Amino acid sequence: MSEIIKKPRVGIIGTGAIGGFYGLMLARAGYDVHFLLRSEFSAVSQNGLRVDSQVHGALSLESVQAYASADDMPACDWLLVGAKTTGNNGVAPAIIQAAAPNAKVLMLQNGLGVEDDLRAVLPDSLHLLGGLCFICVHRTGPGQIAHQAFGAVNIGYHSGPAAEGATRQNIVEEGAALFHTAGIESVAMDNLDRARWQKLVWNVPYNGLSVLLNASTTPLMADPDSRELIQGLMAEVVQGAEACGHTLPEGYAEQLFKVTGHMPDYRPSMHHDFVEHRPLELEAIYAKPLAAALAAGCDMPKIRALYHALAFIDRSRRGG
Amino acid sequence: MSEIIKKPRVGIIGTGAIGGFYGLMLARAGYDVHFLLRSEFSAVSQNGLRVDSQVHGALSLESVQAYASADDMPACDWLLVGAKTTGNNGVAPAIIQAAAPNAKVLMLQNGLGVEDDLRAVLPDSLHLLGGLCFICVHRTGPGQIAHQAFGAVNIGYHSGPAAEGATRQNIVEEGAALFHTAGIESVAMDNLDRARWQKLVWNVPYNGLSVLLNASTTPLMADPDSRELIQGLMAEVVQGAEACGHTLPEGYAEQLFKVTGHMPDYRPSMHHDFVEHRPLELEAIYAKPLAAALAAGCDMPKIRALYHALAFIDRSRRGG
User: Fold this and answer.
1) What Gene Ontology molecular-function terms does this entry list (chains A, B) (predicted)?
2) Of A244, A285, A319, B267, which is least packed with CB atoms within 10 Å of its CB?
3) Nearest CB to A312: which of B213, B305, B307?
4) Are B213 and A292 in contact (CB under 8 A)?
5) Residues belonging to chain B with any Cβ–Cβ distance to chain A shorter than 8 Å
6) Could you give the ipTM of this predicted complex?
7) Chain B contact probe: residue of A206, A210, A231, A308 with most B CBs at under 10 A
8) What counts of helices (H) and strands (E) characterise chain A?
9) Can you give the pLDDT of all 320 residues of chain B as single tens digits?
10) What residue segments make up the domains of chain B, in order of their start?
């Protein structure tokens, strides 16, 4: 007979497209998953979660352990934070409330330094990790998620009670195993900051230009001017990473550019945020990388121009 | 008794806001002015030209010497070209047709190098000059023009039969006198290329951003991010001018930025072109300055990013 292995209890903080997708996959794999929601609490409580996936088919979770407040959640061993970085100030109390002692908090977010602000307000006993999601997924309605492609979550240790080396490695691998069990690719990363810079090579051009030019990837990859602009922005991210001590793999930007040209048409998350009147994730994707590179003596002028233009758009829209 | 002084005959090539305004002012000052029109020929023939000016009041020219073809125009001593730079390929035959021997052709256009392409196809006997219009004016309907503020036309000699020095100076001063007679400020400039760079300090940020951010000067000057972007773009124009051998006056960009903040709300010409589905003047205002600066070893990365974004917008719109 098989041993009884206690699976860790998982909490999802922010059940949007990212939190909803991974939470549903983990629940279907047999984990005990608890979902914190805000505006969609009653819809998900009543109707469950649904993922319409071009990879896995139509998936649903009928009976969702949904909560409108973290006060009602049981203590979780792993907390997956799928909230937008623009809401990070608000999630710390929920994380602290829902965390078991020595829980692992995994930030499934884009951008640079998203763990730093949170770390300052978390108890020292909690492990903080960053996860980079390579996935094309977006919310289509309350509790309804469309999954177009990919799905990998690469994980790195940020800070917490684990000493350097082996202990950290064990925790990261425990996180990767969590996803593997649910059929999701996951790789342990030894340098989270470097991995975040690497992901910015894609996010900086495509997220911002999708809003600025109101265009998805196919038109952006079809026009000679947007192609040159994308390449110019990518080159600046590579320079910024280099200045911050992270030499990215030779030809990485060129490869990513080429792959995007062959992807099915895709609207980046910032375009969805824009269309659905959510604040744009400008701090994590633009302001922090600009500040980090500048502090290291590297200006990124095209990225700076793009950032200012997006900040104007974001502010105008919310003022109007 | 006063001497009879033969006033020069003036032809207006392209009777939009600029051509219509200056042509009307010259006609009201007693010059014999002939207007070449395309789509608005019949409206202007029947109803005349009207300028609604916040400086001069309501002005009209009831009986307009209007032409649908340059073939029908009498030979003119001065030709004022008010057509958009995007139509410069088409205006050369009209200019040649309407020009008296040794006529002076004055390009009332923004941007860099707008005279160069035309020079190549003009007879050597024609004088070619550039005029920079410091004016807030736009077309509101067929033959109808709104004039918000300013009006000066600064003139420089580009090329032609006049030898260096005194002869050129005389011709430029003859042009300035033409405008003075009509109550319009006009200064002779000794270096047209330098003056065009100087004007780009305004046109590069405000024209492009008015389209990219869909905003007039007041909102652009009210937001901290657009302010920083405008100043960054201005600084690059000053660097580009410097690289091309034109040191602009100390503090010029700062002064222009400040003045714009105190101006009444204004939509630059490129925004009008955008709204009215005309091609954008990207070649003269962006591509040529970028190429000239790059050839002189100066990259202007924020301007390059802005240019690529605008070119994408211009092409998408015309394709759609």
Assistant:
1) 2-dehydropantoate 2-reductase activity
2) A319
3) B213
4) no
5) 209, 212-213, 215, 219-220, 223, 225-226, 228-229, 232-233, 301-302, 304-309, 311-313, 315-316
6) 0.91
7) A308
8) 13, 10
9) 444 567 899 999 998 999 999 999 999 999 999 999 999 999 999 999 999 999 999 999 999 999 999 999 999 999 999 999 988 878 999 999 999 999 999 999 999 999 998 999 999 999 999 999 999 999 999 999 999 989 999 999 999 998 777 899 999 999 999 999 999 999 999 999 999 999 999 999 999 999 999 999 999 999 999 999 999 999 999 999 999 999 999 999 999 999 999 988 999 999 999 999 999 999 999 999 999 999 999 999 999 999 999 999 999 988 75
10) 9-190, 194-319
Amino acid identity at A120: A
Catalytic residue numbers of B read: 199
Cα–Cα distance measured from residue B202 to residue B257, given in angstroms and rounded to the nearest whole number = 8
Query: Which among A225, A233, A315 is the nearest to B312, CB-wise?
Result: A225
Amino acid at B276: E
Residue A161: both structure tokens together: 């009670």
Domain B9-190 of CATH type 2.30.130.10: no
Nearest Cα residue in chain B from A219: B316
**C-beta atoms of B309 and A233 within 8 A:** no
Query: How far apart, in whole angstroms, are the C-alpha atoms of residue B149 and residue A203?
Result: 44
- Contact call for residues A226 and A299 (beta carbons, < 8 A): no
Of A305, A307, A313, the CB nearest to B306: A305
Task: Domain B194-319: give its CATH code.
Answer: 1.10.1040.10
Cβ separation B212–A316 shorter than 8 A: no
